[in-house]
Amino acid sequence: MAKEIRGVRGTDKPTAVVRTVPARRPEPKFWEVDLVELVKLWLSDLSVFMRTAVLFVGLSLPVVISALLLWFIQWYRGDN
């Protein structure tokens, strides 16, 4: 943590006010990035996306099956 010292307005002499400021972590350079960990992170994100897609398809099956069944009945009867 870095410390910041400032004066207070409205006084004749400056008063020290100490406030802790979180130190910024330096951004990693491209060559410092672990590519294996990056691929693992991407695969994890892709896994979450695929599970969400499968859940959506699973929850929509009753509507899709009903629609296909009604479409087939209409096609079989020859209705337009």
Descriptive notes:
The structure is a single chain. This protein has about 80 residues and is α+β, with helices and mostly antiparallel strands. Helices cover about 55% and strands about 10% of the residues. The chain is elongated and about 95 Å long. The model has no long low-confidence stretch (mean pLDDT about 80).
Give the class from helix and strand content and strand pairing: alpha+beta
How does the overall form come out from the CA principal axes?
elongated
Oligomer: single chain
How do the strands line up in the largest sheet? 1-2
Mean of pLDDT = 82
Question: What are the segments in which pLDDT stays under 50 over at least 5 consecutive residues?
Answer: none
What can be said about the biggest beta sheet? 2 strands, antiparallel
In total, how many beta strands? 2
Helix tally equals: 1
- Terminal CA distance reads 74 Å
Order of helices and strands: EEH
The percent of residues in helical segments reads 40-55%
Cα-based radius of gyration, to the nearest Å: 31 Å
What amount of the residues lies in strands? 5-15%
Give me the secondary-structure topology.
Blueprint: E1 2-6, E2 17-21, H1 35-77
Antiparallel strand pairs: 1-2
Summarize the structure.
With 80 residues, the protein is an alpha+beta fold. The chain has one helix at 35-77; strands at 2-6, 17-21.
List keywords for this structure.
alpha+beta; two-stranded antiparallel sheet; elongated
